[in-house]
Amino acid sequence: DTAVSQTPKYLVTQMGNDKSIKCEQNLGHDTMYWYKQDSKKFLKIMFSYNNKELIINETVPNRFSPKSPDKAHLNLHINSLELGDSAVYFCASSQPGRDSPLHFGNGTRLTVT
Amino acid sequence: QQQVKQSPQSLIVQKGGISIINCAYENTAFDYFPWYQQFPGKGPALLIAIRPDVSEKKEGRFTISFNKSAKQFSLHIMDSQPGDSATYFCAARAGFQKLVFGTGTRLLVSP
User: Which of B8, B19, B54, B69 is the most exposed place for a label (fewest CB within 10 A)?
Assistant: First the structure.
């Protein structure tokens, strides 16, 4: 009964390739997010969708493109992968309330060689 | 102004001791201050949160202390246990804006 699930858990690929990470939540939340966590553990928001509508788009290279087919799913597609894209990518979801906690998935560790 | 400064970067505490992690902010519009706990290989999870109208909130062994005038807040873990070893993130949010995370503190509780 995983609340926020991401696939794959690990992704190893070469520079220049295109890859996708999928995320699904079964909590009935309206808002979903993508976060990037680098090797120093810094957590940085990338995107946020509310009911399939993009509401936060941080300064992220346009090689990163999120897509939300419905409010339970938020996928992340990355084109022309670079070494610097290596990180752990977390999907999260929340209800719209001000104090609503974020529920994170267990992350996808992306390694670009 | 959107930053939340967290210290220390890492912390080693003996079992049974008190772990203290500090955070400071500049944005006076911040009105929600949660702490997240992250175990290796897992995503962060909400541990405890506070709003600025109270100076302290306690849940079990975990306490948030909040100093509005100093724009600082801290997490105290009493009777620290090896199972508390994790990375802790403070965070802050202004209204419905995005959550801003601190840089994280790696806590190791030695047996």
Answer: B69
Domain residue limits at A22: 4-112
Alpha carbons within 13 angstroms on the beta-carbon side of residue B71 total 13
**Euclidean distance between CA atoms B63 and B75, whole angstroms:** 6
- pLDDT by residue for chain B (111 residues), tens only, comes to 679 999 999 999 999 999 999 999 999 999 999 999 999 999 999 999 999 999 999 999 999 999 999 999 999 999 999 999 999 999 999 888 889 999 999 999 999
**Domain count for chain A:** 1
Domains of chain B: 4-110 (2.60.40.10)
* pLDDT of A1 over the 70 cut: no
List CB contacts (< 8 A) between B49 and chain A: 99, 101
Contact indicator for B64, B48 with CB cutoff of 8 Å: yes
Closest CA to A19 of A73, A65, A79, A67: A79
Q: Is A107 in contact with B42 (Cβ distance < 8 A)? A: yes
Inter-chain contact A99–B96, Cβ cutoff 8 Å?
A: no
**Between residues 94 and 113 of chain A, which touch chain B (CB distance below 8 Å)?**
96, 98-99, 101-107
